[in-house]
Specification:
Structural class: mainly alpha
Oligomer: single chain
Largest sheet: 2 strands, antiparallel
Strand order of the largest sheet: 1-2
Shape: globular
Order of helices and strands: HEEHHHHHHHEHEHHHH
Strand content: under 5%
Number of helices: 13
Length: 340
């Protein structure tokens, strides 16, 4: 009983804490850096989050009302998809990248694999306006939402006005995504001195700190940088990464370093979903890195791992799975809003 009480108290320190009334606050997990998002400028509101949650799951955001944000970002798969390597959009058009996971976004400065978006409150515009993804415009989305029976009352509750606007639509989606905080994996429990790694996980953690932590920095398990990790280019996609945004030759083949949190559930891996298993990922880093002018300096020296060490490293990576995040009832399809 005592352990259960402690567990509940700890959960309350790492999640979005809903207070009495509308305004809520972000409880930053102990030992984590300060979030990048300015909560003082735009405080979280319970009604705005609930509106954003409904919008996140509503296919009305796409041109033919078939694709929602959740179509590519399933809560049970760390808010990505696992049934294909490349994202599928409107009319089953196939994109050029694997959808990124969505979690701990308040700590991000740039979004998307190439950093094309620098503000979470406009991030939803990118898939909405993409011809392959949703093929819609924010102006038409506003028109559809305004004409619905569901949304004007939700906008009134969230923003004090039943007039739907693009700014409020995007802000609500952004506020919902800001609540997607994952910080309760076994790893976190160990860091809080509530549990211990077994011998295999402990050795895997040692190997991780030696070979992986420079890019996948604790506790967020990303350093938010853009790196060329030595993947041979897919000649069918010809995706050169961040250079598309910056036009800087030094950014060729660089992609955002993804978080490793919940990696057990976010396969397939890499920006193009080319690897289906963690075993394949480790094989790449130990024997598949392709040298180039923009290769990350952190990967210039070979990574040598025995078969047993790769198993131990994988065992550690599995300690980053956060079931309380994956199955949080506050993150799933809002039946109480969207179902008639």
């Amino acid at each position: 009983m005592k352990k259960s009480i402690i567990f509940v108290i700890l959960l309350s320190t790492i999640a979005i804490a809903f207070k009495t009334g509308e305004q809520t606050s972000m409880k930053v997990p102990s030992g984590w850096p300060k979030p990048n998002y300015d909560f003082a400028k735009h405080p979280l509101k319970r009604s705005t989050i609930e509106l954003g949650r409904a919008l996140f799951y509503d296919p009305m955001l796409s041109r033919n009302n078939t694709i929602s944000c959740a179509s590519c970002h399933s809560p049970y798969n760390a808010f990505t998809h696992v049934d294909h390597a490349l994202s599928h959009g409107i009319e089953d058009k196939i994109g050029t990248r694997n959808s990124p996971t969505l979690m701990n976004l308040a700590w991000n400065k740039l979004f998307m694999w190439d950093g094309a978006v620098n503000n979470i409150e406009v991030q939803a515009l990118a898939p909405m306006h993409n011809k392959i993804e949703m093929d819609e415009t924010i102006e038409h989305v506003v028109t559809k939402l305004q004409a619905s029976k569901i949304y004007p009352p939700l906008f009134r509750k969230a923003f004090g006005d039943s007039i739907v606007t693009g700014e409020h639509t995007l802000r609500a989606i952004g506020q919902f995504m800001l609540t997607l905080v994952s910080a309760n994996a076994k790893y976190d429990s160990v860091m809080r001195h509530q549990s211990k790694f077994n011998a295999q996980e402990e050795n895997g953690y040692r190997l991780f700190k030696t070979h992986c932590a420079a890019c996948h920095t604790e506790p967020l398990f990303t350093n938010h940088s853009f790196e060329n990790n030595g993947l041979p280019i897919d000649i069918a996609l010809n995706d050169l990464g961040r250079i598309r945004i910056t036009q800087n030759p030094t950014d060729s083949l660089k992609f955002k370093v993804p978080t490793l949190r919940n990696i057990e559930f976010s396969y397939p891996y890499m920006h193009d979903g080319r690897f289906k298993t963690l075993t394949a990922v480790l094989k790449h880093y130990t024997s598949g890195i392709q040298k180039s002018n923009t290769l990350s300096p952190k990967l210039e020296q070979p990574i040598v791992l025995s078969a047993n060490e790769q198993v131990d490293l994988t065992a550690f990576l599995l300690t980053l799975s956060d079931k309380s995040f994956l199955f949080n009832p506050n993150f799933v399809y809002p039946k109480h809003i969207l179902l008639p």
